[in-house]
């Protein structure tokens, strides 16, 4: 459910016709709907209504735009961050330090120190040496770091290999079999307050079964840790819930997820933490683009748009599907491959797809681009960094400028020893 709908035959973001944004801001441009974002934030929170103690930390890697974060901060959301840069963003958006969770497999000592200095709520420790380092840094600052240990439950999330994180061979967390020993040693360190367990098995999960299996394993671990005398007050269940990308996709709803979590965790007696990303932001954005050319090909026609793999990397990286619809559809259809201007065959958004018939100069959108869209953009081929717009009813604001290729070039230097 989103607020990108046709009114009078023209696709709107809430009450703003998309041609207006194209005209005033140019294309390509990401367009977000505040009402959709708020609705998803509300739906996810409602889905957890049967969970007595909880904290929701938006995985800001999926959309770190300050305007987006401010909307979520006002909804009471905290942040799951994975770098010093994300940490500063979460704070700049108005989120409270206490509501910030620091995940990530390669935190630097400087980032651990930053987290302590800013007073964040929780560190998710990925392996023993990181915990030891955090304890040392905290001790030197005469502080105690609230921390949980991330475990790798060794389940197959059934998603794309590049976004699976919970199999034994993945780089994340510590094996659940060795977790009790590691937890025991870390819990004995001054400077650390080891208070629980974290996990995250992957992203764009379209079945609850692997999540449930992983949570059950963690439930047994919590019982074992308690039996060994540890106080376990927090379990961070990560994110991962999938969203529909194709019109006929039917992933589990937040309500299904919430009911499963409530059932599996009912005797845990902990504060449950959640790190949703895509399910909050995915449907809240589209990438608005202009058709540059329709080029007849040897085997099929190409629709060449002004957005490219540097603006929306998911199709090139994961063969991901993003629905493509015309802003002013005529009702006619065509079969074509949709490609961008970048000089690689990988710069392909769709192959031989039946789409709305478009011609040069027409506007179209890639849907469900609010998560892992702009945040993964680059300037490859010396293209500009794509801008972002947030719509709120009848008004909109540019929440990230287009950064021109010239601005990027201005940060480069030719050393004077090259003659
Ligand atoms: N927590 C942790 C520790 C994570 O690593 C992630 C995502 C999340 C939460 C949020 O997961 P979500 O609810 O959004 O599924 N670029 C890829 C997705 C990478 C996900 C990385 N980790 C894509 O475009 O599909």
Give the distinct bound molecules. ligand LLP
Beta-strand percentage range:
25-35%
How large, in whole angstroms, is the Cα Rg? 23 Å
CATH architecture of the largest domain: Alpha-Beta Barrel
The largest sheet, given as strand count, sense and whether it forms a barrel, is: 9 strands, mixed
State the total count of DSSP E strands. 21
Oligomer: single chain
Give the N-to-C terminal Cα separation. 59 Å
Please characterize this protein's 3D structure.
This protein is α/β, with parallel strands linked by helices and 419 residues long. It has 2 domains: 157 residues, Beta Barrel (Lyase, Ornithine Decarboxylase, Chain A, domain 1), CATH 2.40.37; 246 residues, Alanine racemase (TIM Barrel, Alpha-Beta Barrel), CATH 3.20.20.10. It is built from 12 helices and 21 strands. Strands 4, 14, 15, 16, 17, 18, 19, 20 and 21 form a 9-stranded mixed beta sheet that branches. Strand 7, helix 5 and strand 8 form a beta-alpha-beta unit. The structure holds ligand LLP. Ligand LLP binds next to helix 10 and helix 11.
Short description:
28% of the residues lie in helices and 25% in strands. The protein is of the alpha/beta class and 419 residues long.
Index terms:
alpha/beta, TIM Barrel, 9-stranded mixed β-sheet, 8-stranded parallel barrel, 28% helix, binds ligand LLP
